[in-house]
Amino acid sequence: MTQEVPPPKKRKTDRIQVCTVPTCQSRHLEEDNGYLVCQTCGVILQEANIVSDNMFIDGPGGEAMRAGVTVGNDSARPRNYDAMAARIVGGMTSREVSEANGRQAIRAVSGHPLNIVQDMQDTAMQVYKLCLANNFVQGRLTRNVAAVCLYIACRRSKETNKFMLIDFADKCN
Fold it and tell me: Which residues, including other chains, have CB under 8 Å from residue 165's CB and lie 6 or more apart?
């Protein structure tokens, strides 16, 4: 008598009951390695690769620390714990330093003779943060990036559309 060993069973999911492809509508769904796959048409219906468990590790001084990383809404990469530790002891992260330098450069460029209002400076700062997130500032002078951000902010507004690119170029040199 030989017994056949059945293959390991895959977990069936209770999240989606029917394939969402209009032409398929199959109920043969299986979950494998975090993917919910329709066994009839082969479409991947869900991916579950995000882990939401909290783990704690012992720090160098015996204190408990949360393991893992945090990704902010405006971040291109996860924030590491060295940056969080710098903030706890009163320092600033490199991103915060870059934002502060950008804000200072925007104020400097928007001064006399341009006299750009605070509203446009705030809009330019939002553009500058976007530039930071996309690494546009890397290898460029902060003053030049600030001038470009102010130019974009002023050209978008109907009230301050009186500035030309040469006005901002004069402030950079």
Answer: 151
- Confidence tier at 91 by pLDDT (50, 70, 90): low
Specify whether the CB–CB gap between 114 and 146 falls below 8 A.
no
What the block records as the tokens of 37 is: 């796959």
Please give the structure tokens belonging to residue 14: 């209770």
* Measured distance CA(12)–CA(14) in Å, rounded: 7
Strands of 48-118, DSSP E? 55-58, 64-67
Q: Which of 61, 62, 58, 13 is nearest to 39 (CA)?
A: 13
The answer on pLDDT for 82 being more than 90 is no
How many angstroms separate the CA atoms of 163 and 173, rounded?
17
Q: How many residues does the chain have?
A: 173
How many C-beta atoms lie closer than 10 Å to residue 57's C-beta?
10
CA distance 141 to 128: 13
Cβ-proximal residues to 106 (8 Å cutoff; 6+ apart), any chain: 121, 124, 125, 128, 146, 149, 150
Q: Indicate the pLDDT class of residue 4, thresholds 50, 70 and 90.
A: low
For residue 107, what is the DSSP state?
Answer: H
Residue 124 near residue 152 (C-beta atoms within 8 A): yes
- Identify the residue with better confidence: 123 or 70: 123
